[in-house]
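Flavin-dependent thymidylate synthase, Actinokineospora bangkokensis. Tokens?
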Amino acid sequence: MRPEGAAVAAVDPEIEFRSEITVQLVDHQASDLGVVRAARVSTVGEIAQTETRSDGYVEGMLKYLMKSRHGSPFEHNYLTFLVTAPIFTVRHMMRHRTWSFNEESARYREVRPVFYVPDADRLLRQVGKPGHYQYVPGAEGDHDRLVEIAKESYGAAYAGYNELIERGVAREIARIVLPTATYSSLYATCNARSLMHFLSLRTHRQDATYPSHPQHEIAVVAEEMERQWRELMPITHAAFETFGRVAP
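Tokens:
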């Protein structure tokens, strides 16, 4: 604890503190009918791209594929998201090796002074054993002190980074003093099958076949990806929900 009356270090006014994590669908080729075409080619040969099917037929086929775990037809599509999030959240995404990533490089450009601080609604304490815990609110004053310490730390780290840059130290070395709460942006591309696997682990649904308990920040990313994917492939999404949110 800081001694009573101790001064708070000044923070560079250029530094931005942010709680928002953003996900934008920037490109895609994804549809429910596309999954059906990919599945039917194995039994009837080439399918005309102009062919249409009733929603009832598409729903029946997608439910069959999902229930039977015939996953490959869900791979013939893609979705590309632009994600802006703290580095520790980006690294959570990269644990899923079925994505393609292009992230902004701190070797080739100077890092912008934008850092993550949790908002007041963020649950701060973890109760229970690893793998069987839950998050609960912090005690009175926890959030204020967390933000205060974070801002001081970020300010000191960014001042050190700037000093190294001004001394001529290479950006790829100077960046090592920056925290994982530094914001980064990346393009992330996957197919619907990979996305369903990601969502099954990075969202929390108590009624899922295998309920997961992801960290809040990566869950924000996953929930927004799911919302945008659901608009493109509503019947596939419904089948995913029906069969316990398990990727086929």
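The two ends are 51 Å apart (CA to CA).
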